[in-house]
Amino acid sequence: MATRNLRVGSRGEDVKEIQRTLGITADGIFGPQTQRAVKDFQRENNLSVDGIVGPNTINSLSKTGSNVEQQIKDFRSGKTNVASSTPFVSRIPEKEEPKKKAPVPVPVRDTQPPVPQAGNTFTTPTAPQTQHTTPQQPQASNSDDVLLSEVIKRNQDSYNILTPEMQTIVNELSNVLNKTIESGKVINPNIEFTPTEVSQFLDQATQELDPFFQEQIGQIREDLDTSISRLTQDFERGVSEAEEPFTQGLKDQSEQEAQSGLAFSSERNRRQGRALTEQQQRLDSAERGVGRNIEDLARGTERRIGSSEFGRTSIPNLSKFKATSGGFQRVGSRTLFTPDGQLKGTLGKEQEVALGTRAKELEGAERKRRILNTSDL
What we know:
Blueprint: H1 13-22, H2 32-44, H3 55-77, E1 115-117, E2 121-123, H4 147-154, H5 156-160, H6 164-182, E3 185-187, H7 195-259, H8 266-305, H9 307-310, E4 318-324, E5 327-334, H10 346-372, E6 374-376
């Protein structure tokens, strides 16, 4: 028997000896199946149920192994008709006489070795019949293959409705997991990230997405500059085009009044004054229209890209003109738009959401990668 404590992950001939005594496949690897058999043995022999083969468990197993070996020797020599077995071995059910040839059922545990039964004959226990015979479910491997058999047992209907291709994938994945456990590894189920790692995910998301959003901001700012430039140019072009007809009209009117002897009359002055006032009103109306259009564009841009980004945008002033008898004179300029200064911007909010989503995707990918990583048991 073993001279050391054995637990999940242990390997060697002493593990095989324990497995043979417990009546399970002896492959020398202490896996989940072996641990379960050890716990069952400890429970039935009033030992501490911890799944570890220590001195007390080894002592009890030694007695059990000796009793079973002696019973088999006596039975083979014809000295004894074995009617019962040790408490642990007696857990194995008697074989029922088969009525018909039935499909091989799926074993939940490793195949048990032959156990002496009453009637001077050796038989191997048969698992209960199952109605789900198609498609054939995978057999447990020689190692402690508890993963696939237990999962299928708990999800029988779900497994049966899978296509053969999907069942093959499930079986292959299970084999990979089983081999991982057999090699003394455990799949990491609990993943926690440090604040530094979470910050790194966000930094990576920013590096990936920031160029896109900066490009969007640049395009919006460029569109605003183009629109304002066109509006101001159209306004000044309109002023310039209206100046010549206005001054020519005043000149023609003065010549007509001079020919009529009214060059210095008060009526002439009133008519000229009315002409200047009407022209000034047209200039002011055009200026207000352009100013409002530019203000609306600027306000929409600030709401879109936010005040911080909008602060880097230059909004030109609009020239003011005064109508005189000699033409139109520039008399200063007016500020077209004063930013709010406190707006986050819809694009900024979209960027925050996109960064958060991408950071979560990166975190999820890293979590999946770590889950598939293995560490020592």
